[in-house]
Amino acid sequence: MSVKITEKTRGDLYERLKSELKAMEKLEAVAGILAKDGAVTKKDSDGKKSKYKVIDVGVVHEFGYPEGNIPERSFVRSAEKAASGELSRLTEDLLLDVIKGDLTAEEALGVLGEEARNAILMQFSSRGRGTWDALKHRSGMPLQDTGQLMQSIHSQVRRKK
What's the total number of domains in the chain? Predict the structure, then answer.
């Protein structure tokens, strides 16, 4: 079987690729605690509402809070560092898929965002950065007991700001 590429085919391919690359230029994939999830009031392990929002808890654990005796437990920055090579290779593969016409720019960015989300979630398990130690000033492991912080991590393709 042979494929004949005509001027029309070449022009169609060029226009589609140009369109996808323009779309990719205007979009971005993000992963982490997105605004809608971060604004939710956190629940404590006993089911009661906390005075903190999920984003507050995420920031405290990402950077630590020495005054509260809470060590840094990075899950976003450590994921970026741990998975940077893998995500770079995936980006190259996805770009080739866009060039070949197998994926749209938005679909490719969606795959990349989900992989970044998975890399972040891995940081909570022993396969990632390791398990988190219990906090000294309270009993239990509220973040693991409720799962709310992990459940608040999502990915999204959105227009660049």
Answer: 1
